[in-house]
Fold this sequence. Notes:
disordered C terminus; elongated; five-stranded antiparallel sheet; mainly beta; Immunoglobulin-like
Amino acid sequence: MRVRxxxxxxxxxxxxxxxxxxxxxxxxxxxxxxxxxxSIQYTSGKDRSRIVIILTEKTDYRFNPTxxxxxxxxxxxxxxxxxxxxxxxxxxxxxxKGIESFQYAVASAxxxxxxxxxxxxxxxxxxxxGFVILIDVAAKKAATDGQAEKKAP
Length: 153
């Protein structure tokens, strides 16, 4: 019996490629959903403002400071914004102008924190039931060179 080359090629292709494609597909009910940004909150105190970004679990993220306008952008890869989140939170407390969030790809979100001039920020994390990103914004401390000022005689 003679096997035709075209049929042989199709059979080999089916045996090598198709099983691996089906193996990588998740079974129904077991698909991994993207991480959700469930809440963005802020508080303003006497000497600092705190922004809290709450995610359902840890995801890839990257911080990008921008200087014109002064802002901190947080790219959250593999994350989707909750439909309940507002796109813009006006803060206007003298340190933070506002917080903007938007979905820029199917599973990538961005949070932008607009900062006033002369502000500095510190980022920390909590890995609790979800994943929490904390951003504290305060005025930059005056730089000193460690020498006492000399008084004119």
